[in-house]
Specification:
437 residues, alpha+beta, Alpha-Beta Plaits, Chitinase A, domain 3, Trigger factor, domain 2, 4-stranded antiparallel sheet
Amino acid sequence: MEIKAKQLDSVNASAHIKIPSQELKNEVQNLAKKASKTLKIDGFRPGHVPVAVILKRYEKQLQNDAEQNLLKNALNNALKELKKDSKELVGEPYFEKFDKKDEEIDIEFILSFKPDLKLDDYEKYIPQYSEPKATKKEMDEKRKELLKTHASLEPIKGKRALKEGDFAKFDFEGFIDGKSFEGGKANDYVLEIGSKQFIPGFEEGMIGLKIGEEKDLNLSFPKEYPAQHLAGKEVVFKVKLHEIEELKIPELNEELLKKILPNEKEPNAELLEEKIEEQIKNEKLLKLVDEELKAKFADALIENYNFDLPKGIVEQETDMQFRSAWQNFSEEEKKELSQNREKAKEKRDSFKEEAQKSVKLTFIIDGLAKLRKIDINDQELIQAIYFEAYRNGINPKEHFENYKRQGALPAVKMALIEQKLFNDIFFFSKTNKKGEK
């Protein structure tokens, strides 16, 4: 086996390997001899299966295993020549050439190693921003929302009609083309009118009804309705109102303050206002981080930190972005790219610049996370995936297994670390509150 390895830059090295065909044959023969001592084949005593039988029956598998063994040896020898440890590798070797000839296998691949980053001065790239403020209107609305969670429902007095904000108890049944459908019927259902829980027009159509009255609501399911067999269909809902309840929002008193602020020794209205103000500010800051600051910070990091990128990782990211974009190409473009290798390569390479930025940011985020001791443990990862599943009405265990099968768990973990890192920087770093932008 002939090996030539050389360092290309601080994180990439190339290896040129030539494996003589005789060496490959010898390895196949060695594997066949070992297998003959352990394999059980009908008609032969255990441990006495002729090598020729093994070679004939398992030729393809033995060939693949032999190649893998020789490649592994070649990789280890290349690392020795480069004076590198396998623990320093990132990603899989990126093969630029794998040419099988009669006399030899000619291989060229790139080995990539983790960049050594110095990020101690990262704080100077945190974008400046004005600390969010809470307006009186926002404070009033948030206080009302809070009191609403402690409100009680009381039946209305008199015979007034149903209005927005009321809670209605009613029966309903839906009909499409005169036939009822599964899931379209309920008795004594309680609904807040104006909550938009039902399809457009349903809650609005009930406004004005009085207790005991019935009404037919002629509506249509939205075209984007999740249940495809109902999407866009015209429907008639027959409703009968049984009861109307009003939400009675309580007055803020000492007893209620104790419920709202259970962990405070001396709960009072002033402290509640401080908590409400802090919550509003944090919500605004979170929105500002997600919509503006995170992107600005990421762009500044990418622009100001320059280092060699692992070529194998960049190529893998380029491939992934190209595959992701493929589904959005027109059928005409897909056909052209499938038939023209040059154009396909040109199109694929057009994603490389974005791939480089993505890989660069990933290493920076990984470095900053270690610097700030940010991590996501297995339990947090599982909880995040399960929460995503619950939110989308998917079986959480199956959702987790799908991520696992696709090898996507590391990417999910990195996304969670990124989110946790940026929140830590913007919410807890004193250096980022620098006044007006």
